[in-house]
């Protein structure tokens, strides 16, 4: 019980005493007039304290007497109804001065009836309008109706429950003002902090983990942090982790808590509460119309990339991940299938799957077959799927259509949906969308070298051909169509007039490179902008790069006059430039002092078999793998053990940089040794391959070895990339 409530109780006690004093012995003390003045003053104080409590709690102080403790409103009520439900309704309405039937006479407090007449209806209207958010909002109403339906009954029952709860609420011991969560509270959130408010300033050093505890039973302590706010006299216990579902917790405050070195509590005080129930795990996939689906409107007859319908797909919380692999879209309305050029799906601005043509049966199946095109939802995740259309340039103004989803394909065990899920209809106007020309300007392309930084790999031009409307260029998505892999060409960057306009991005698993302008670029009508795409070449010798605008809507340009996607035309389709990746910066050649054929005795150490010159142009390279091919000729090739070389190493200036590795001609696959130790090459370095010739029986007269560095099997990285 808080201080304001205590003051109200105290005032009522004084008022009761004052009335009692108005008995026979009053003449010797106060006159009746003086006592009446006292009573009036106390009544005014009670009213003021009630107002204060209303401000603190957000609701008026409602005392409901005369309604049975277990009663709830279960039946709708209206004017002319009779019975106990009507009487209890009037009692609840009269418990609040803002909704009472009358101040006096029939229908007033203490004079309730069992008849639902005009006074009751007027009071119900006041009640409904006082609690608009709870009663009227869900129906889209702002004015009361006087009919006691489901939401009105729910609010009435909540007030009855609140009044009963306040009557039953356990009082906290002296010294405490309130605790939260309240004693015996249920459905408590898992992230709740426990608070105890005192009416005296505490000795802060006595507020600690010994004097304040949270337990799941008599012995299990919940870990957490204890703090004290001297301004509000509040102790707060913050659990280290969220509490568990459906668990009863007990809070204990001990007599170790003091104020001015004296115990605040006469004895240890404990109270309990119970946390909320665990959420029900919904299996499978739920699909419904999104609240953000576009409203009905007029659209240009030739608009591209217009979102007709948005559906929200949600995977069940706590269940398995769900993969959506396709959906079926139908067209309805007074339009025609050939008003549409292509139908497709966008998720977070990215197209999933290919654009498909709407069939003459007004149906199209959209399929997401590649790994990148599939829509994957983790358990509990939801996503908006946008059903998008490009209109045909011959679409007929005045036609209107609705696009609806009639089926969805996924690996979910169960799909919950009310198919078909339809958006709103869109009417084609005679107004044309803005127009944009896209042109490839890179010519035939050229060669690029492994190790090149920010080298040109495409040149394009975007021209606003609209006669009167400026456009806002938002993004450009290009597809890498040739053999270069995503880890070989990285850090694609968009430039215009030598300045970077979109910073580095990498290709997706489906080989798409998307440049999103942080601030959309405005291109005025009649103007054009030329862009250069540059990238870092990481590897891929002899592979090719060709960046292509796969679909016209992969260029997102919005008209500033009417906010519609521009109609994009590729002016020179097939004019894309191709760039070939050349060998790169590392060259391997025979050293001038490469050893010649010679005779070597068994048990000879550090025999130089090969010397090669590694040349790294411009920057230091980190060699990560070198393959040395070994060709053995001799009698031991037919033996089970094979001829052996020990301690095969790579050396630079006498220092071992890779190895040693032992070589067994019979055991080594493909007669090669792969050294995967890393070493650096800066400028030109002589790499020497050395080995020890063994002295065991596997080495015989006329055994011979030749070695070669396989330049096709050397991997290297630029030191700057590491």
Question: How would you describe this structure to a colleague?
Answer:
The radius of gyration is 42 Å and the shape is flat. The model is unreliable at 1-28, 56-61 and 636-642 (pLDDT under 50). It is mostly beta strands and 722 residues long. Strands 12, 14, 17, 18, 20, 22 and 23 form a seven-stranded mixed β-sheet that branches. The protein has six domains: 3-57; 84-168, no CATH class; 176-275, Immunoglobulin-like (Sandwich), CATH 2.60.40; 285-429, CalX-beta domain (Immunoglobulin-like); 435-582, Sandwich (Immunoglobulin-like); 586-721, Jelly Rolls (Sandwich), CATH 2.60.120. The two termini are 66 Å apart.
Task: Give me a quick take on this structure.
By secondary structure, this protein is mainly β. 13% of the residues lie in helices and 42% in strands.
Distance between the amino and carboxyl termini: 66 Å
Summed over residues and divided by their number, the pLDDT gives a mean of: 85
Structural class: mainly beta
How large is the share of residues in beta strands? Answer: 35-45%
From the alpha-carbon coordinates, what is the Rg to the nearest angstrom? 42 Å
Helix content: 10-25%
Which ranges are low-confidence, i.e. pLDDT below 50, for 5 or more consecutive residues? 1-28, 56-61, 636-642
CATH architectural designation of the largest domain: Sandwich
Write down the CATH topology of the largest domain. Answer: Immunoglobulin-like
Helix tally equals 6
What is the CATH level 1 assignment of the largest domain? Mainly Beta
Counting DSSP E segments of at least 2 residues, the number of strands comes to 43
Assembly state of the chains shown:
single chain
| Major sheet description | 7 strands, mixed
Number of domains: 6
Shape: flat
